[in-house]
Amino acid sequence: xxxxxxxxxxxxxxxxxxxxxxxxxxxxxxxxxxxxxxxxxxxxxxxxxxxxxxxxxxxxxxxxxxxxxxxxxxxxxxxxxxxxxxxxxxxxxxxxxxxxxxxxxxxxxxxxxxxxxxxxxxxxxxxxxxxxxxxxxxxxxxxxxxxxxxxxxxxxxxxxxxxxxxxxxxxxxxxxxxxxxxxxxxxxxxxxxxxxxxxxxxxxxxxxxxxxxxxxxxxxxxxxxxxxxxxxxxxxxxxxxxxxxxxxxxxxxxxxxxxxxxxxxxxxxxxxxxxxxxxxxxxxxxxxxxxxxxxxxxxxxxxxxxxxxxxxxxxxxxxxxxxx
Amino acid sequence: xxxxxxxxxxxxxxxxxxxxxxxxxxxxxxxxxxxxxxxxxxxxxxxxxxxxxxxxxxxxxxxxxxxxxxxxxxxxxxxxxxxxxxxxxxxxxxxxxxxxxxxxxxxxxxxxxxxxxxxxxxxxxxxxxxxxxxxxxxxxxxxxxxxxxxxxxxxxxxxxxxxxxxxxxxxxxxxxxxxxxxxxxxxxxxxxxxxxxxxxxxxxxxxxxxxxxxxxxxxxxxxxxxxxxxxxxxxxxxxxxxxxxxxxxxxxxxxxxxxxxxxxxxxxxxxxxxxxxxxxxxxxxxxxxxxxxxxxxxxxxxxxxxxxxxxxxxxxxxxxxxxxxxxxxxxxxxxxxxxxxxxxxxxxxxxxxxxxxxxxxxxxxxxxxxxxxxxxxxxxxxxxxxxxxxxxxxxxxxxxxxxxxxxxxxxxxxxxxxxxxxxxxxxxxxxxxxxxxxxxxxxxxxxxxxxxxxxxxxxxxxxxxxxxxxxxxxxxxxxxxxxxxxxxxxxxxxxxxxxxxxxxxxx
Lengths: 324, 507
Description:
The complex is a heterodimer. By secondary structure, chain A is mostly helical. Chain A has helices at about 1-30, 40-65, 70-90, 90-115, 120-140, 155-160, 170-185, 190-200, 200-205, 210-235, 245-255, 270-290, 295-315, and strands at about 145, 160-165, 165, 240. Chain A has a domain at about 50-245. Chain B has two domains: about 10-245, P-loop containing nucleotide triphosphate hydrolases (Rossmann fold); about 265-340 and about 420-500, Rossmann fold (3-Layer(aba) Sandwich). Chain B is built from 17 helices and 22 strands. Chains A and B meet through helix 8 and helix 9 of A and helix 10, helix 11 and strand 18 of B.
């Protein structure tokens, strides 16, 4: 009898562990520091996670399609630098579409390698992480990039503006989440992404062009990176070459935390949003506790490991098992 | 264990086993008792609870109620290791061997004999292994790389592994699925040897002929319930089938009585590298064309070529008299060729997806209202084939991976029927499917022909191919040996043809 209860608690923990841990965490932090659940703090967290969130939305497509994208952090640095540089050269109205085209071009290149040439996505995107960083430094000559006239440009509206009292980054994140959620859950393309990630061979045997679907997931991912780069550039109006460094791991943590399986075929945009928020609140809570910000690098890793462990535990119904 | 192999005490006894999963009562008070020196068949349709029962016995599932007795001692099986320690060993249908290691390393994996400083005692390892192998009378030695062995010999390695622990009970799960007749004989000798040593053998198989050849008793499950235990010598196929499915099974020959239509598909001189060459055949509307041959004879490869998965190196494909080039599955589907592939789980289904989504997968792009997939249109298609094919599932939301093999196969068939194909190719329609669903699928194939579909059935089971086909193409080593009509075909002539023996020359 006691065994059965233990098994049940184990199963519950395995299935809902992240949510339970999150609620417990929120309660503890709210008790320790009431500021944690103040409206302005909550809004602040959502706002600061918007960039991470936008990228995570795109990576969700790649992960459900059964692949990884580790190049997104480096790619965001690229789009940020490019749009800032072009802002002063050709004006913001042209700089933005030019940056989008270049970033989508990078995504298309990765999508071609992983989708059509069927190269391992871990290797391809890890390599691209480094290659795009080199590209960014080449573009900028290694210097920080700044907009000359920071007061006089409308470009700051994306990162700093607000509509009806809500910051624009939050609105863009929310809008994109809704659009991409519909794309993934309601359209034929979305269904094909699940099929390709769930069982690529069966997808091919059902007449689904696997290569094209994988290619398109990387296009979605890089499109989101371009939006994130725009938000980042517009918020700071100046940037280092390494602004997106390390973001790929945080994004991955958020996506996995949301419950997308690294094996592909499962996950949703909504769950990823939850994952992003959980990650944001945990990082914010740690800051409020007075811990240095670099503690979160370690915490991010702990969260990834925890999330992956709970994911496999949920699949086998126990926390520990002698077989995989 | 005493010397008397006819020990009447069971080596293994399961009593009142109940196991429920959310929404399903998978086992409902199941009993099973295996005597020392007995071969005990466990039979039942897929989904009847055989695998769940074996997982309970193997410590992978904990029963909600009921007791397992090993040598009349109640035991709580907590893990596969525990089961092994109790002398209960499984020979699985799916092999779990490391291809790159030698036979000996595989057999003693995790228990390699050691010398000082943790060094492996190779001499003892190979010596021990060869001793076990000699008992099995196999044609390979301890140092052979497992990846170089045939499937049958790999199975022997699994059995050899089981013999290292001096088992009380050995469970064979569909052991002959991929064995030739000669290999089966060897397997049955091994089983007889185990029997003579007083080991209790549980033998799980759908193949009646084997059950009646080697088992002493038969326990039948249906829908998670115990239906009874019969003495093999005192029963017959009909009675067992009745118990399993509640009705009897028809496997008579079954040529079409309706008029055949035009030629739907014709193939002339089709070749694909070394896989098959110079293949000619045609299939008419309303006709079932069977392809029979050994595994590797090139049948599946022909199907894959017709479905646009392989590029032919020569030859011509004519659809409705018109020469066509099929470059991709999308091409094939657009031209009305559908393929129910041989590997249901690997190629036919996305197991994590629900029934409806699997069924509509090839046409999901067309089922739109505005930019979105029309859920209503999808459910309509699902409902239609759910009813038509009598698919047993609680509803379209059910994950396909949770269905039994027969119902999974019906989902795949429904998927392609909903595309209204001109030519339906079915590769191994009933592989790993229980008898009840088997006859349903056979009837379904006959029905489809009667409705005017041109159907190609590829099968490795002779009774099946004889039962459903109007004509049979016999293949050997990538070539068509002969095409039989259902009137002229005999089992002997078919076997000769697929063995590469030319007609007339054989005795």
